[in-house]
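**Discrete fold encoding**
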Amino acid sequence: MTMQDRPSDDDPGAMTSVGLTGADVTGAEAVAAADPDARAPGRRAALLARLYELMRFGMVGGVAFVVDTGLFNLLRFGPGDLLEAKPITAKIISVAVATVVSWLGNRFWTFSDRRTETHLREFAGFVVVNIGGMAIAIASLGVSHYVLDLRSPLADNISANGVGLVLGMVFRYYAYRTWVFTAKDPSRPLTAASNS
């Protein structure tokens, strides 16, 4: 729609804009609708909040990664060689502990304003999403290793821990926001429809 200016019936000297929403809009409303920079402070604050949330998400993921790899290596190669001959068991334990660490960090820090009262549902959804993220990394490794026939240790690490990790991380972030931490965000303004 185009915006047309015409004099107002009440004040011939005042200008109103027609065509924005099908009704007459006056003054500051017309400027805000026509000028995207007029809404910039709200957008800037939302963008900054999302950036901080992404940074917290990355830091929690980094801590969980250190817990996973550190515990795996401790169980396999640490004092007493607890699970030296059982790498799969060591990996299952390290991933389980890292998942709990990640859930706690995301629940109480990254998405603290979106956490729900149903801890069990939230944790179950978190585990399901993590399995989905792991499936993405495994699929990336499978395509590289078996379809593209890139079988070197470097290729396996790039596909699983590079490409797969990044794709899984993007999936996890949006899935956590959409399906796991689903409480109403208190920083979002209530609309007229949500008030009724």
Observations:
- The chain has a mean pLDDT of 78.
- Helices lie at 27-34, 40-77, 87-110, 119-147, 153-180, 192-195.
- Residues 141 and 156 are 6 Å apart (CA to CA).
- The first strand starts at residue 4 and ends at 7.
